[in-house]
Amino acid sequence: MVKRFRSPRAMLVFSAIAFGTIGPFVRRIAVSSGEVALYRAVMAAALIGLYFLVTGQRIPFRSIRRELPLLLLAGIAMGFNWILLFEAYKYTTISVATLSYYFAPVIVTVACPVLFREKMTVRQAVCFAMSTLGLVLITGVGDTSAGGQHLLGIGLGLGAACLYATVILLNKYIRNVDGIHRTFLQFLAAALVLAPYAAMTGGFTLHALDGTGWLCLLTVGIFHTGIVYCLYFSALRELPGQQAAILSYIDPLTAVVISVLVLGETLTLPQALGGLLILGFTLWNESSPPSGEGRAPKRRLPN
After folding, report:
1. pLDDT digits 0-9 by tens, 249-287
2. HEC string for the chain
3. How many CA atoms lie within 13 A of 287 on its CB side?
4. Is the dihedral of CA 124, 129, 132, 133 positive or negative?
5. Which of 23, 12, 26 is nearest to 256 (CA)?
């Protein structure tokens, strides 16, 4: 069983399922989203730093110094991406927030022709159009029962998706830094920026947490971020990009299942159809294109 779990595919499946469960834990942490993001970055960086210490790994700063500004920018985008996603959980259902967030690959597909002079293929254009239709269905356009908070939650989820896409695109420029070193440095950068942000937007209120809140915070910081990120990047080193991309879609599917079946949140038929359009067409876009077609970046950072 242990040997089986050590297989790259098993590690990635486990990671994707774990990432899909983060929403309910975040909701039970009674501090601001900025604080949650800060503590998440600090705990994960500390855990990975301890791992480096135990294994004797060193970060080759001399060879990566030119890419440090990009790592800093990616870390900043990652931290504020978390804040917007955590805020989205407060205003709409976890399933809708997650599906809005997974519009990020569509944003990357549109951005790549501009930034990297990649030709947008017919497949990518169709995927963009159908995913956008899926997003329209999720917003509940024409549904008078859809309140302002629901739309705010979707807007926050889309904001998180834009920052998520920014992290993906910045990481495409970073070529000389290993995955785990890259993640550690981005966590450090996120913590450095989020500390003053949290101080200026309400201060630090850890004293307000009860036992459940502390348990959820430690779970998000140590398990969902530190441990699961390590498993995720360890698996990515061994798996083909296409297979990793496909398995990563277990993350949003897990979030939807938990939202509907465990938490009892409502997912209307149009929203479910919209989610299928977003996930289905972005997945199709990331499958192997015919020879000569461009590709969007496949190895994305998790939640």
Report:
1. 889 999 999 999 999 998 888 899 999 999 988 888 877
2. CHHHHCCHHHHHHHHHHHHCCHHHHHHCCCCCHHHHHHHHHHHHHHHHHHHHHHHCCCCCHHHHHHHHHHHHHHHHHHHHHHHHHHHHHHHCCHHHHHHHHCCHHHHHHHHHHHHCCCCCCHHHHHHHHHHHHHHHHHHCCCCCCCCHHHHHHHHHHHHHHHHHHHHHHHHHHCCCCCHHHHHHHHHHHHHHHHHHHHHHCCCCCHHHCCHHHHHHHHHHHHHHHHHHHHHHHHHHCCCCHHHHHHHHCHHHHHHHHHHHHHCCCCCCHHHHHHHHHHHHHHHHHHCCCCCCCCCCCCCCCCC
3. 9
4. negative
5. 23
Biggest CA-to-CA distance, the chain: 59
DSSP class of residue 276 equals H
Backbone angles phi, psi at 301, to 5 degrees: -75, 145
Q: Amino acid letter at 29?
A: I
For the record, the structure tokens of 155 come out as 């807007």
Degrees, nearest 5: CA angle 238-19-231: 30
Q: What is the pLDDT of residues 232-253, one digit of tens each?
A: 877 877 777 667 777 888 899 9
